[in-house]
Amino acid sequence: MKNYLKYIIPGVIVVAIGAIFYNKVYVVKSTFQTIKPSIGELHVTIRGIGNVDAKNIYNITAQSGGKINEIFFDEGDFVKKGDLLLIIDSVDMPLLVEEAKASLLKAGFEASSSKESKEALEAQRTLIESTHARYKKLLEQKYLSQAEYDKAKSDLTNIDAQIASAKAKIASASSEELRLKKSIEALKEKLQRFKIYSPVDGYIISKDAELASYVLPSSTIFKIVDPKTLWIRTNIDERVASELKVGQKATINLRSKPNENIPATLQRVVATSNAVTLEREINVGFDVTPDKFYINEQAEVHVEVATYKDAIKIPAKLLRTYKEQRGVWVADGDSALFKPIEILAQNDNEVAVKSGISAEAELLELDISKKPLSNGMKIFR
């Protein structure tokens, strides 16, 4: 009996270990969950990573250099078109305007005085002309000497010269008035350049000068973004960029709001590719301007380039390559079977199947903790 036991006990132990291995290891590693394909729409999108930017960002510059006397807005403020942003010290410009106005007044007085003088001379000329005409007749009748007639004629010539001089003074004064008026307009225009106004409704995203600092002509003081022109600037590989067309619908996921799909539209595809990265820049605009935004914030865009209706869809994670064929593993009774498929379209998450499996196929969900599959391998479900 003892001799039997020394063989039976090890045998029982081996059987027990085998049973444990079969049930706890083999069966577990050979058990796969299955799912069936779904029927529905497949949206094919092109994905890109970019940054918040805008079509219209205005560089507000100083037209005239000088010290900033007053500054009314700060970075992050919203401004309306026509708002006064800052005032630059105009130094002696107002005094020059007042001086020109005084000169204009003087020219006006001179023109008025010359007009009055001309009117008086014209009245005198009427009398002198009458005397000249009368003396001429008397000279013809021999009742007047030549010397007296010559004096009357000289008086007429002299008064005409005085009238001509008065007219010249009037013309000169009028010309000076016009010149001074233009000068005043020019000075006022220059004076206005020391006041800088917002050209648009928008947000100040940058302020590069402070109160009492000195700015040079054409130096940037503010950057203002028009929020209606916000878009995402991103780059797409040339191999897929040809499918992009202006007007295609898209979604934007801001890094600060990763779970919010913001409706958008493809607004521009840049015509020139980057010769180094082999990418093409695109701009995807927001359909509705977000309440808050941050220029240069990272964002992800998905541009919808095609939609397939009533397609047989499977999760993209189930795709495998087996013996140089692309396909999926399916349950064929109690065995695993690799089914090559023809792909109609694909996005990041799903694949539309053109042929190879039906909507009733039982797809095996793969797991790295399970046994590697092979054709005909027994499986549990």
UniProtKB/TrEMBL annotation:
Coiled-coil segments on the chain, per record: 149-190
Pfam families noted in UniProt: BSH_CzcB
Keywords: Coiled coil, Membrane, Transmembrane, Transmembrane helix
Record flagged with keyword Transmembrane: yes
Domain called CzcB-like barrel-sandwich hybrid: residue spans: 58-226
One GO MF term: efflux transmembrane transporter activity
Domain of life: Bacteria
GO cellular component: efflux pump complex
The keyword Transmembrane helix belongs to this UniProt entry's keyword annotation: yes
Residues that span the membrane, as ranges: 7-27
Family to which the UniProt record says this protein belongs: Belongs to the membrane fusion protein (MFP) (TC 8.A.1) family.
NCBIfam families linked to this entry: RND_mfp
Protein name according to UniProt: Secretion protein HlyD
